[in-house]
Amino acid sequence: MAALTNMTLKAALDGLSTKAFSAEELARAHVSAIAAANPHLNAFVLETPDKAIEMARASDERRAKGEAGPLEGASIGVKDLFCTEGVQSTAGSKILNGFKPPYESTVTANLWRDGAVMLGKLNMDEFAMGSSNETSAFGPVSNPWKAAGSNQALTPGGSSGGSASAVAADLCLAATASDTGGSIRQPAAFTGTVGIKPTYGRCSRYGMIAFASSLDQAGPIAKTVEDAAILLTSMSGHDAKDSTSLDIETPDFASFVGKSIKGLRIGIPDEYRLDGMPSEISKLWDEGIEWLKAAGCEIKRVSLPHTKYALPAYYIIAPAEASSNLARYDGMRYGLRVDGGSLIDTYEKTRAEGFGAEVKRRVLIGAYVLSAGYYDAYYLKAQRVRRRIAEDFDKAFEEVDALLTPTAPSAAFALGDRVSDPIAMYLNDVFTVTTNLAGLPGLSLPAGLSGEGLPLGLQLIGRALDEGTLFSIAGVMEDAAQFRAKPTRWW
């Protein structure tokens, strides 16, 4: 059964197609793997083995009738940010404990339509607020990777740490995730997996528990570039229930993998070469440039002058939107309720007990920057900076077809290392937040190992709605990198 869980999504789909094994056998293998590993990794907050077997049997019946969908029988995990009908969905927060949505998110509905099988709900930073998956009400997730010669628990990144850890540990073939400022790409880099945040509006946000509505976007974390392309194709599509959903045709993203990239122009932004950047990150970036040159790409230096303002702008805009979105959690309709002596007292006690420290911090920041007297000074100014950042990208893409940067400024760090220093934690997003502010697609792929034997990722940024080019470039880089390392099983 171990061989079934070790497969890529593409290999599993091929095996199901040739009837080398059944969807039920595949699901049972993953259920067993989760049962053995999850007490150590804490990647799943809710395991749904009975539902998985039921869905797998139904999948086998459809295949027997010749009605197989594109993902027929594939065992996947779902980030707990996506509402799943009748299955607890908490966004990693105590305030939503016990909430079982009476509806399905559009992204997961698309996956079930195409035949995927749900193994359970994956751990995450509370309301997706965090870069290390340590703010979850269900406790931190452990990275399946360990530094050489150390037994110290490492972060898998955040907020999609559960998704990244589960995929890296072969607990699911692939997983849904979400990205507000880097929460798909940074965990992918930390765990040796592939993650893509598509163009804003490519995937519906209906049924995704909101953090910052103008920044949140769903995407996949998978074992290979091709796997990520397969899953994104099913996740995408126009949705009338989401006013920000783009009414455009979804390409077959997997068809772009393997295409020649000869003649493409790749931009290297000057502003991403930060002072104090670890030499191994710079070296890997330079190595990535050489891979692209060897593939026939033209390398050009470009400037994104407003990059240095991206983090401050993001940490004004995102908390402002969060403070508005999270106002709905008051203990009146669903989730946690702590009764008080009055209506206001009930609100206060429910939120005090239901929200964690990081969520409270961001809600307070958001309320402050939206308050009278500060709205113009902070929020409006941050939105103007956001426009300038988008214009920087527009100008760069007049000269190049994609950008290459590091994904994160370091390899995975130890759990507990940066919890007491919010600024150090926020700096993890330094290379990723710009794409969210501009609404552009960004993809992270594993490209090498640190001196401690931990995964390091490189990021590709593309034009809006040009995920296909990113998949083509990433496929070539994946072949060049030959990243085959896997975490040593200690669980």
Q: Strand tally, please?
A: 11
Q: Which CATH architecture of the domain at 2-262 and 408-481 is right?
A: Alpha-Beta Complex
Number of helices: 16
- Strand composition percent: 5-15%
Could you give the order of the helices and strands? HHHEHEHEHEHEEHEHEHHHHEHHEEH
Major sheet strand order:
4-6-5-10-11-9-7-8
Please specify the SSE layout and strand pairing.
Layout: H1 2-6, H2 9-17, H3 23-41, E1 44-47, H4 49-64, E2 75-79, H5 106-113, E3 117-122, H6 161-168, E4 174-179, H7 185-191, E5 194-197, E6 217-222, H8 225-235, E7 265-269, H9 279-294, E8 298-302, H10 310-325, H11 343-354, H12 357-369, H13 375-396, E9 402-406, H14 422-426, H15 433-438, E10 442-449, E11 455-462, H16 467-481
Helix pairs in contact: 3-4, 6-7, 10-12, 10-13
Q: How would you describe this structure in keywords?
A:
alpha/beta, Amidase signature (AS) enzymes, eight-stranded mixed β-sheet, three-stranded mixed β-sheet, 16 helices, 11 strands, globular
Task: Walk me through what this model shows.
By secondary structure, this protein is α/β, with parallel strands linked by helices. The protein has a domain at 2-262 and 408-481: Amidase signature (AS) enzymes, CATH 3.90.1300. Helix content is 38%, strand content 13%. The protein contains 16 helices and eleven strands. The protein has helices at 2-6, 9-17, 23-41, 49-64, 106-113, 161-168, 185-191, 225-235, 279-294, 310-325, 343-354, 357-369, 375-396, 422-426, 433-438, 467-481, and strands spanning 44-47, 75-79, 117-122, 174-179, 194-197, 217-222, 265-269, 298-302, 402-406, 442-449, 455-462. The strands form two sheets. It has an eight-stranded mixed beta sheet with strand order 4-6-5-10-11-9-7-8, with helices on both faces. Helix 9 (279-294) links the parallel strand 7 (265-269) and strand 8 (298-302). Helix 3 (23-41) runs antiparallel to helix 4, helix 6 packs parallel to helix 7 and helix 10 (310-325) crosses helix 13 (375-396). The chain is globular and about 65 Å long. 55% of the residues are buried. The mean pLDDT is 97.
